[in-house]
Amino acid sequence: MNNVLVNPSFVDDFRQAAPYIQYLRGKTLVLAISSQILLRGKLDTLASDIQLLASLGVRLVLVHGIRHYLNQMISDAGGALSYHAGWRITDESTLRLVKQACGLVRCDWEALLSAGPAHMPNRSSRHLKVAGGNFLLAKPLGVLDGVDMGYTGRVRKVDTDAICRRLDEGCLVLVSPLGHSLSGKSFNLGLDEAAQALAVALKAEKLIFLGEKDGVLDEAGRVVSQLTAAEVDDCLVRVPQSAETARMLKAAVYALENGVNRAHILSGFDDGSLIHELFTRQGRGTALAQSAFMRIRAADTRDIGDIIHLITPLEQSGVLLPRSREYLETHIREFWVLEHDAHVCGCVALKLFTEQQAGELACLVVSPDIQEGGYGELLLEHVITQARQHSIKNLFALSTSTGSWFDERGFQAASLADLPPDRQVQYRQNQRQSKIYVRRLSQ
Ligand code: 1C4
Q: Considering the chain, what percentage of its residues have pLDDT values greater than 90?
């Protein structure tokens, strides 16, 4: 007998992470990291987590901020911070300091990322290669409301070919918030401007901001775990966020509206937040999407493992009928799954009895950790829509333990004689004595 103790939570966590590991491999992530993190964060563990991501085949573009260094340098030089319409005004002396701050912060990040990854063998031979270059073409912001913004700029173009070549070589691309114009001038871009432009141009899977706050906060100061782009304005009106979070939110919404799949805002101070956010269902900070996070889609054979994982405990406790892998393979076209990112967290089937214009809602499951969030109802509504499309008049459901759930959703008790003949045979054979419910569907 093997005496090694197995930590069940580790096994569960690892299983939960597996689909995310697969999903992120080969995807491009833009990490935008506030300069505060470099001043006060747990940098060795953050750098190590970034290296871990790279080792899993994630393509990484890291944009570093300089704001806090720059503010300090300006005040050390006896200057004043000047802003207009939320943008920093960059005169010539400020631009010199911007360049100095970029050099300083860039060097620190290169050094951090050059340390061999912790927790990995052969640390010295595996250090991450960092690439840099003139990837951002800039244009001046110009004169805003009569105010000359000087060397404050916007991104005109991203040299995606050059960045992708470095990513293909396995490098992490480190970008400073500074762009250059065709006339050879440099422009101060700001972290959010550079990060959103990179994420959109590279068609990144995710734009991730690591800032000072744990995420977007609600009225009670708790982190809002998910937001859609459409909810952001309302959220900002209801709960004023820090200036940094508000800037990140604006950039996140721009990125989502221009094709980036997800944006995340999380704390760069919180040890492990990046790993937690990317590899767990609950996440750690705030995840943003253009539209609702959950979706229902037709199942295919690749979902069978996940469906088995969902239904096995319920088959063992007698709630669901047993369904073998072979059964699922042959009947997968009757199934839909509820998906959150890459994670299957619910399923349902519709069995058609076309001759009798009847259908059976079957194998209805919502993962225990998201139950009572309305997803069961969502799956039911989806099945009803599908049933109507097949001109089904009577939708059945058989259950040993969920009768009241169906009662409350327009189903009525029915008898064996109401079932289609084939289903009556199966009912007699399995001897479960399940209660029968029916909902009449108007077309
Ligand atoms: N009975 C009554 N109410 C229940 C309930 C239950 N067992 N479980 C949850 N609820 C209530 C909650 O208390 C909550 O009430 P509230 O607060 O709104 O008043 C409400 O439902 C939540 O509704 P929801 O829309 O948020 O629902 P979800 O929690 O997302 O999902 C499920 C509801 C029942 C799907 C979920 O609890 C679940 O997955 N449960 C375990 C599996 C289960 O019981 N599935 C129902 C199967 S009936 C079988 C088959 O294999 O085909 C057996 C066939 C046979 O021959 O016997 C089916 C259909 O799959 N049949």
A: 84
- Give the atom of ligand 1 at the shortest distance from the alpha carbon of 427: 56
- Residues in contact with ligand 1 by the CB-under-6-Å rule are 314, 319-321, 361-366, 371-377, 397-402, 404-405, 432, 434
Q: Return the sign of the alpha-carbon dihedral for residues 18, 19, 25, 30.
A: negative
Is 277 within 8 Å of 208 (Cβ atoms)? yes
Asked which of 5-14, 22-31, 291-300, 390-399 is least confident by mean pLDDT, the reply is 5-14
- Contact in structure between 32 and 60 (CB atoms under 8 Å): no
Residue ranges of domains in the chain: 8-289, 294-440
Integer CA distances (angstroms), 332 to 318, 342, 345, 390, in order: 21, 18, 16, 17
Which atom of ligand 1 is closest in space to residue 401's alpha carbon? 7
Q: pTM value?
A: 0.72
- CATH class of domain segment(s) 294-440: alpha beta
The span from the CA of 161 to the CA of 251, in Å, is 23
Query: Residue 299 pLDDT > 80, yes or no?
Result: yes
What CATH topology corresponds to 8-289?
Answer: Carbamate kinase (3.40.1160)
* Tens-digit pLDDT profile for residues 321-362: 999 999 999 999 999 999 987 789 999 999 999 999 999 999
